[in-house]
Specification:
This protein is an alpha/beta fold. The protein has a single domain, classed as Vaccinia Virus protein VP39 (Rossmann fold, 3-Layer(aba) Sandwich). A seven-stranded mixed sheet has the order 7-6-5-8-9-13-12, with helices on both faces. Strands 1-4 form a two-stranded parallel sheet.
């Protein structure tokens, strides 16, 4: 069912439809149609630590983008899945000076939620979608969930520890957090809880990529403990497919 917020949504009907171009995530939409995403998480989805079965459990996908992991948790049997993200590109955690320089067309872009609802309609999915920043996650806002997933978001946040505290507040049992790593720090000091800041070498203007941090696995593990989780278990390093950065995933548990 198409969300009433998107009543005029047009759906692709053939493999060469340009509506399938330019996606962030590669998503199987049904009838043999697949979005042409920048990343394809399908070959690596089992590296994250998602349980094979989520039967009778509730799940939350934080920073869902176009919904790949929300739909994956639904596919694994979760009885209720909620997906959250900001409403438009301008609501991302930009530096104020960068936000002030972005064109209105970029600030007002809603291509993430539009494509989510396109995928939702084509997959006949029951995933619920809400406009919510990670900083605004609270039980009274979204509820509490058995499994919370958050992938490739922390590097884009000015305050990742606060974000993890908010994630902890809505986690009943376990949270799975993935983020990009600093491969040099990881190789040199794998047990050092270190973060590297900024991407000055690859940016024409500071903050233009809305990216701030690279972690070591130990840093993510320790930050989850500081955020209030009882345990944190690393899943190891892997590369986003097909030519993405090296990332780490940590499974954190409440008790």
């Amino acid at each position: 069912m198409i969300n009433p917020q998107w009543p005029a949504l047009r759906l692709p009907s053939r493999a060469d439809d340009p509506l399938l171009d330019g996606w962030y995530q590669t998503i199987e939409l049904g009838n043999g149609l697949v979005s042409r995403g920048h990343y394809d998480h399908r070959p690596i989805v089992d590296r994250y630590g998602l349980p094979n079965s989520l039967a009778e459990q509730t799940a939350l996908d934080v920073g869902t983008a176009e919904g790949f992991f929300a739909f994956e948790m639904e596919r694994r049997g979760a009885r209720r899945v909620v997906a959250t993200d900001v409403a438009r590109i301008g609501d991302c955690d930009w530096l104020p000076i960068r936000r002030s320089r972005l064109p209105t067309a970029v600030l007002d872009s809603t291509h993430w939620p539009a494509r989510f609802h396109m995928a939702q309609a084509m997959r006949k999915s029951r995933v619920e979608y809400r406009f919510t920043s990670v900083y605004d996650l609270r039980p009274e806002v979204v509820g509490v969930f058995d499994v919370v997933f958050c992938g490739s978001l922390l590097l884009h946040l000015q305050n990742p520890l606060l974000a993890l505290q908010r994630i902890r507040s809505v986690t009943r049992e376990m949270a799975i957090i993935e983020t990009a790593v600093d491969v040099l720090l990881e190789a040199q000091s794998p047990e050092r809880p270190a973060l590297s800041f900024g991407f000055r070498g690859s940016e024409k203007e500071l903050g233009e990529a809305n990216s701030y941090w690279l972690f070591t696995s130990r840093a993510l593990e320790d930050m989850l403990l500081y955020a209030g989780f009882a345990t944190a278990e690393r899943r190891g390093l892997f590369d986003l497919s097909p030519k993405g950065p090296t990332v780490t995933a940590v499974v954190a548990r409440v008790g």
